[in-house]
Amino acid sequence: MRLTPSGLAVPGPSRRSLLRGVGGAALLAGAGIPLLSACGGSGTSSDPKTVSLGSNASDAVPKKAFESVYATFKKQSGITVDVNTKDHNTFQEQINSYLQGTPDDVFNWFAGYRMQFFAAKKLATPIDDVWAKIGDNFPEAMKKLSKGEDGKYYFVPLTTYPWAIFYRKSVFQQHGYKVPATWDELVALCKQMKKDGLVPIAFGDKDAWPAMGTFDQINFRLNGYDFHVELMGGKAAWTDAKVKAVFDHWAELLPYHQDGFMGRTWQDAAQGLVSKKAGMYLLGSFVAQQFTNKADLDDLDFFPFPEINSAYGQDTVEAPTDGFMVSKAPKNHDGVVKLLEYLGSPEAEQSYLKVDPSVVAASSKADTSSYSPLQKKAFDMISGAKTLTQFMDRDSRPDFTSTVMQPGLQKFLQNPKGVDGLLSSIERQKKQIFASS
User: Fold this and answer.
1) Mean pLDDT for the stretch of residues 403-408
2) pTM of the entire structure?
């Protein structure tokens, strides 16, 4: 099921937002979890020594990692974090009604549009006072990602992971391939890989969300970060020539995508990279979880999507980011401020990552000494980005991305010549959806 901003759940496949980063596991837990409305019961307490927190970290590893973080916080502050954990999907599906009811003081959520939507609805509390203390811990791009449309801070980031093009170092070495820095170099590399008997780009879109990642990369490389934000926010037209240019570029790459993608999951596509039958794979760094053999994992590397427009270079990195927000009327304001100041510290991130090394820290001051080479590279790529995006289904309305963009992109992939009619259809549906409350 998928969450809509109106609080309704609509059918849709699991997203990569349910995945943890490098080597991570799905966050989707089993069914039969109590409704989210039950969460927040302790949010009615005004105990100065307790802060209530609504958590979507239902998977065993992140749940244990957060327990470690909150235990350390209690030792430092004497404040207990009363955690109400709900199934990840249930939390997302019921978030709107939850925030309008009696929510916990603090809750887990996502950066970017998902955060801004509830901030604009006055269902979250600004936390500029917290950011006055923690601001130096984060790069500018992460600060931008944590602000509402009113320019105030509403979010404290904790963990993140990048999207990039993954490859096997040994395959590149064997064939003498060089990492492409430009679009023309990428296309030339694809042609060479095809000649060498490799599948140039591993690809699986059975669950409909991976294609959104390809669109994002081409769009912000070609048209820049600001246009990406305007398009995802419903402010730019899908019939704009800039959007058509994205699909024109994508059509140039399609002959090098793995065949049969409509029947293949992202995990199945990853096996092409594992077995060295595919040369490259554009995905989030959670692809590493498919590399169960240490030698294979050590051979895995990645590079940022190549430059298309020199005006934007490789400035933007797609880095889905998870963290915390404060509900509209927290009962223990002072305790909330202390908790968020701690959660925004490198110490909190390091405490989390000791238990869950599947992601990287959002802070630019985090200790990376225990990171794997892949994690270090991911951390550096995100920290060095001028701007960060979240992914189409986090940067836009989930109802729009699930009901319009996912089937729309699949139509394009199967019939790239029908793009004009497709974009007109997307624009019509976008106007209807964004006009609704």
Assistant:
1) 95
2) 0.80
